[in-house]
C-alpha cells in the first residue's frame, strides 16, 4: 500500500519517496551526477545526429541531413575509386579474352590477385576459403566438374549460375524416383547397390537387376557406364567424388528425393572484369581443364 508519508530511513539516513509496499519503503536515491551528464550528452548527440545525417523517414523518401551522406553513395564512390586504382590493368583485363589473360604473365598475376579477393568475398561462404567445398557445395580443387571445367564453362557458370533466376542459367532436373513413386523402395535400394559397385565400393545383392534398372532410369543422364555428362550437369558416379555423400543411405536419399542445389547468377552483382578474374582464379586452383 502506497502512502504519502516521507521519512528518513533509519538505516541509511536517506529520505524515502513516501511509497511503501508491505512495510518496505522506497529510498529516494538520486542518480549519480556522472550518469546524468552522460545521459544529457547522449540526448544532445542524438539531436545533432538527426540534423547532420539522414535520419527521419518521410512519405516517399527521408531527411537528407546536412552532410547528405548515404552508404549507397559512399559505396559508389569506393567502387569508382577502386576502378581508378586498377587503371590500365583493369581495362586490359576487361578487353582481353580468357585465353589471352592466361597467356599473359602480367594479366594473369593481376587476375589471380583480383580473383582471390573476389572469391573470398563472394564464393568462400559456400565453397570455403580454400575452395575445398563441403556437403552440397563442390570442391573446386579437383578435376570433377558437374558442368565442365574449361575456362569458358567456368565463366558461363559464374555468370549465369545454376538454377538461378537468370534466363540462361544452367539447369537440369533429376527425378525424385521415390517421392514421385517412379520406383519402389526395393528398386531404389537395388540401384544404390549397383552405384556402389561401379564406384568401387562393396556392392549389395542383385547387381544384374540393378544394372538393368540403372539403364532404364539413370543412364539417359549419367551414361551407360555412369561416368556422367557435363552437358546435363549429371555427375560421374564412378570416381567416388560425391557432392551429397557416397554411402548407401546417402545414395538412396538422393535417388528417392533428388537434389537441386542452387548457385546464384553473378552477372548482376559483379562486373565482367571481376567475373573474368574469378574464372581464371578458379581454373588455376588445380581442377581446371
Q: Topology of this structure?
A:
Elements: E1 16-21, E2 24-27, H1 33-52, H2 71-95, H3 98-103, H4 105-122, H5 124-127, H6 151-160, H7 185-198, H8 207-217, H9 219-222, H10 248-257, H11 272-284
Antiparallel strand pairs: 1-2
Helix pairs in contact: 2-11, 4-11, 6-11, 7-8, 7-10
Task: Characterise this structure.
With 289 residues, the protein is mainly α. Among the domains are: 71-170 and 263-284, Cytochrome c-like domain (Cytochrome Bc1 Complex, Chain D, domain 2, Orthogonal Bundle), CATH 1.10.760.10; 185-257, Cytochrome c-like domain (Cytochrome Bc1 Complex, Chain D, domain 2, Orthogonal Bundle), CATH 1.10.760.10. Helix content is 47%, strand content 3%. The protein has 11 helices and 2 strands. It has helices at 33-52, 71-95, 98-103, 105-122, 124-127, 151-160, 185-198, 207-217, 219-222, 248-257, 272-284; strands spanning 16-21, 24-27. A two-stranded antiparallel ribbon has the order 1-2. A hairpin with a 2-residue loop joins strand 1 and strand 2. Helix 4 packs across helix 11, helix 6 (151-160) packs across helix 11 (272-284) and helix 7 (185-198) crosses helix 8. The protein is flat and about 95 Å long. The mean pLDDT is 90.
